[in-house]
Each structure stands twice: as C-alpha cells, then as structure tokens.
Design a protein that fits this description.
244 residues; alpha+beta; Immunoglobulin-like; 5-stranded antiparallel β-sheet; 4-stranded antiparallel β-sheet; membrane; Regulator of SigK; transmembrane helix; transmembrane; Anti-sigma-K/W_factor
Length: 244
C-alpha cells in the first residue's frame, strides 16, 4: 500500500484503489508522514513550470461583465471521462521521480549531518592537542625499531594519564592492519589506542591511559589486525620510547 502513495497524491489511481489508499493513510502514521514529504516535493516541482500567459480575450470579457453587471462565465470544456493511457505512464514516472527526489534529499541531509559531526570531532581533538602541548612539561623522542625513517615526540606531564604523540614518516600499514600503541609495565602490555597515519606517514594521537603515564616503563607501537587491534601485541615493534 505504501508504494501507491505517490500515485495517489498525483491522482493516477482508479477510484477503488484511491479510496483504499485514503483509508490506509488515516491509520498509518508512517505512510502519512511519507505522504507529507512527497507532497512538499511535488510542490517544488510546480515552481519549475513557466507562467502561462492569460487568454487573449480575457480583458474584453472582463470589461463586458462590468458593463452588464454580471460576471462573465468562463467557457468550460467537458472533462474527459477517463485519462489517456499515456498520461497514466507519465504520472507513474513522475511518482517514481518524486520518490527518488525525496530519498536523495534525505540522503544529502544525513551526509551533511555526518560531515558536521566529523568536523566537530576533529575540532575538539585539535583543541585538546593544543591544550596538552601547552600543559606538557616533558617531551620524549620516539626511538625507531623496524621503521628506520620514523621519528616523533611524546608530550606529557609525568603525573598525568594523558599524552600527545606526534609521529612522522611511519611506513604504510599493511592491508587490513592498523598501528596500535601499548603501555608496558614489566611483562604486561596494556593496549592504549589504535591509529592510522596519512600518506606521508604523519599522525597526531591522543593517549588516555587508565593511570598516570609515569607508572609505566615504556610505550611501544606495533602493527595489528584492524580495525580494533589486538588484546596483546602480535606484530613486530615499529617504535618505542621510555616513560620512566
């Protein structure tokens, strides 16, 4: 029944089906809401039509009605008893186009909302990074292992559980793999976060540890299966740095 709503709004249904759809719309809130969206889209289509010029004899008939004191009755043409078959096809195609237009508008609205959310998240991360750089009292250089060109710096305050890691020239991660940061204390390696580097191997990563970073011995980076990484290190160490 929901598929007949566009044709119903365009008047392309027979009397029996039209009555059935009208009765369905009274009880179905979802179809009623869809009908409102389609009606709004149909309304916008009317704005695309050029304005039609008035009939040439309109002025004369209007003046004659003023002189006689009675309004001139417009000439009415007899309405056809049924729609031509080609008109039904046109209306059906128009209904499909209207539904597609509504769906496209909904998709664009969702994409725009997601883009705004992503931008807000990036802005928040950027602001957090700037604040952490301003508060950092210690900078520890990254020591490359299996990535000889990689270099970077960890910015932190010893009594803080948060830090900012900035890395450059990391090699591209293998297909299906991500970089993962580990906080090491003795024989235990606690997963911190996963990240990706850009095409130049650069990235900025916010680290939020469960306890102050000074309580760990070191930080290490490995490649692990994506997208969530591993519960324990499985790949070779890419780089590391001391924390205490």
């Amino acid at each position: 029944m929901a598929g007949d709503v566009p044709a119903y709004l365009l008047g392309a249904l027979d009397a029996g089906t039209c009555d059935a759809v009208a009765e369905h719309l009274e009880d179905c809130l979802e179809c009623k809401a869809e009908g409102r969206r389609i009606s709004e889209a149909i309304g916008t289509l009317g704005l695309l039509a050029p304005a039609a010029p008035p009939p040439a004899d309109l002025r004369g008939r209007f003046l004659s009605s003023l002189q006689s004191g009675e309004p001139a009755a417009p000439e009415m043409e007899a309405a056809p008893s049924r729609q031509p078959r080609w008109m039904r096809y046109v209306l059906a195609v128009a209904a499909i186009l209207v539904v597609a237009l509504v769906g496209w508008n909904v998709m664009l609205s969702r994409d725009l909302s997601q883009s705004r959310a992503d931008l807000a998240a990036l802005r928040q991360e950027h602001n957090q990074g700037l604040a952490m750089l301003a508060d950092a009292s210690r900078a520890i250089p990254l020591v490359p292992k299996n990535a000889p060109d990689a270099h970077g710096m960890l910015y932190l305050s010893p009594d803080s559980s948060q830090a900012l890691l900035m890395v450059e020239k990391l090699p591209p991660a293998q297909p299906g793999m991500v970089y993962q940061i580990w906080l090491i204390q003795g024989s235990e390696s606690a997963p911190a976060t996963v990240f990706h580097a850009d095409t130049g191997g650069s990235t900025m990563v916010m680290i939020d540890a469960p306890k102050p970073l000074a309580s760990y011995q070191s930080l290490a980076i490995t490649q692990e299966p994506g997208p969530a990484g591993s519960p324990a290190p499985t790949g070779p160490m890419v780089a590391n740095l001391p924390l205490s």
